[in-house]
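Q: Sequence in, structure out?
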Amino acid sequence: MTPIPVLTTHALIAIGYAIPLLFAPADFLWLYGAEPDLDALHLARLLAAALVGVSAITWLAREAPEGPALDAICFGLALGTGLATLITLGHQLLAPTAGLLGWSTILICAGLSGAYTMLWLGRAARRSAPPTVTAS
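A: Exactly. Output:
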């Protein structure tokens, strides 16, 4: 597995969540069954700002060479998406107001966490793999 497709997918998902959270947070929160009071709108916009940053990092990291920096990105994103999986799963089991959208968020977070974990654990194998030659 190579990091490029995972990083690209994560960048697109992150910006896909960030845009509605930034510009239409009340409508987006309503989809999840959350009450869009002033505090929730503020937190939604803060989350959107963080997601814009994640999107930029994952998009630009696609060109990063193998090494400690890419390892740190994969480890950090495995940890963050793993925690997001646990948090969303706990909320979905205790207060399932989001319905199917909540379960899809769990699947997205779990999938990204698994992919980043595999990338981080497979870092030594990627570095020791012989270079591939493509036919022109």
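The chain has a mean pLDDT of 92.
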